[in-house]
User: Fold these one by one.
Assistant:
Number 1:
Amino acid sequence: MEQKKKKVKKPLGIARLIPGKCIACGARCESTCKVEAIVMNDAGEPVFDIEKCTGCRRCVRICPSDAIEIYFTPEQQKILDELAKKEIAEAEPEVEEVDEEEAQIKARLKEYHGVWVFVEQIDSEAADVSWELLGVGANLAKTLDVELCTMVIGDKVEELCGESFAYGASKVYLMDDPVFHHYRTIAYSRAICYLVGKYKPEIVLIGATGLGRDLAGAVATELRTGLTADCTGLTIDENRFLLQTRPAFGGNIMATIMTERTRPQMASVRPHVMPMPDKDPSRKGEIVRESLAISEEDIRVKVLEVHDLRSDAAEDIDIAAADIIIAGGRGMKSKENFQVLQELADELGGVVAASRSAVEAGWLPPERQVGQTGKTVRPKIYIACGISGAIQHLVGMQDSDVIIAINRDRQAPIFEVATYGIEGDLFEVVPAITSHIRELHAQKKA
Ligand SMILES: Cc1cc2nc3c(=O)[nH]c(=O)nc-3n(C[C@H](O)[C@H](O)[C@H](O)COP(=O)(O)OP(=O)(O)OC[C@H]3O[C@@H](n4cnc5c(N)ncnc54)[C@H](O)[C@@H]3O)c2cc1C
């Protein structure tokens, strides 16, 4: 009787680190390993468990610095040599299905095209952040060579299509229905999920306002995709992935986040972080009208009354909209001393703001706080007085056109972002500037 030939499996090798090449990117290899064969050491480099490694090459493919290679143990090399010699036909790769899964994911990602911006509106008036997002969206769409579109959802909001075109969109997906009169999470998130499911955009951008934060989270959860909140930078890498940069770990580092296996890639951006693009009312585009099978009965939340807290607030100065900001920090030493800054602000037609330390001391209300947990501002002139320049403060003001820093500590980090730095005592410098400007104003009047 003929004896059955024993099948020999082709070894796939084992992963290992190439010394000196790891850039400690944030454990991408560890997160992609399906058999938990990788743990990170204190330096943020991978350590491979050769007993567990199946040689699937996922880590090799995902490594951004080509720091991982596959090697064969002497025993595996022996089998490979024998297989090559005997050309055994039965030799099979062990984990073929892994590559198939990867191929399926890649094919799914390729179905998604276009950069979309959600146009936030209340009573048909758009939030500026939506147009700011069209500015950065245009750069992304140009790099990807795809369309830049908006989603306009609301009640009697068709005029926002024209505004979308004026700010750079070439197509608008419009859902105009009384059911969208007031913002309600369920109605708006269903509308966006419907549009995304039908037209498959690869990037969706939403303003990180109160409404936007609520909506973006609900949509990303429903679509089971990634969402990076409060981005400060958005670019495209060589593999067409959206690189989403934002402060992390209390603002001590800037993290760049990618959504590698799901679509769309979703990001939210706070108002005033991105510059406003030019408006050209002559631009035209295409309107795609859509409707959603949803009625009032389907929505359990009813809006009984709208109370505009903005008009109630005693604090009605919006520092985010100001062109000139005079900001004070812990160096101001007391609430009363902020009068020095107010006098300069009055001369320049600006507003007074503060660092978190000053707000926590009760010297100014929280609405005046600039920074990561305060407001992001982009004035023409930002004068920082007695503010050291912690990263959490800088992320809220570093895109100002001109930054003037007044600090008595030459080493203060605020000087690194300042256009002009004045080393000195603010209680001498600020009044001197104020009186000089007063004189100039008086001369002009005379
Ligand atoms: C999660 C998190 C979020 C945060 N969010 C924010 C935020 O949104 N905004 C924010 O601002 N901070 C934020 N912080 C706090 C931040 O880390 C800093 O502690 C804070 O910004 C420091 O405020 P400051 O510069 O006013 O005070 P300090 O760091 O104490 O600096 C005071 C400065 O005043 C100078 N000075 C003192 N006297 C004079 C004088 N007479 N003349 C000139 N200069 C003088 C000193 O040299 C010093 O540089 C956050 C922190 C964390 C952990």
Note: The CA atoms of residues 307 and 313 lie 11 Å apart.
Number 2:
Amino acid sequence: MAETIIIRRMEPSDEKYVLAIDQKIVGEARAASWQQRVFRYLERYYPPVSHIAKANGVVVGFIIGDIRGWEYGMASGAWIDIMGVDTEYQGQGVGRRLVEAFVAQCRHQGIKGIQSFMRDDDTRIQRFLESVGFSRGTLVEYSLEV
Ligand SMILES: CC(C)(COP(=O)(O)OP(=O)(O)OC[C@H]1O[C@@H](n2cnc3c(N)ncnc32)[C@H](O)[C@@H]1OP(=O)(O)O)[C@@H](O)C(=O)NCCC(=O)NCCS
């Protein structure tokens, strides 16, 4: 029988569970930057768009993002920064439900657009986002090797 998945807003006490999922799906390298980059920021400002998914009381997925003002000359909108679903729960609609919660909160706050950046060759996340209604945007990255 399918387990009941509960989606709720992320809270500071969820950080350790989020980190454990990220370590499992991406590895230690990114996890090392979390304390410095993600949590320090979250502890100052908990964006209401960030959510976690729980199955049988255990955190099995997360979506972290925020709402930013004018950026890149575009109207204010929300950004999905990072998301992940525990390997054992992937492909069961958890990611979709997390995005839906993110979108619902954006609608509630009157946000008109949601963006997310990823590598051009990361077709996995691109196909996932297309499945949940996103399409390719128009932002372009310029870089210089030094
Ligand atoms: C990408 C990820 C967030 C998707 O979450 P999920 O719970 O597995 O996805 P869902 O089961 O909700 O799938 C929703 C839709 O996306 C599609 N989808 C999901 N992963 C896909 C993939 N790798 N390739 C193609 N389509 C995919 C599903 O087929 C489904 O479409 P459908 O409803 O039309 O059948 C999750 O698999 C994950 O954490 N992956 C590893 C880490 C990662 O890439 N994180 C994102 C970068 S920060």
Note: The two ends are 55 Å apart (CA to CA).
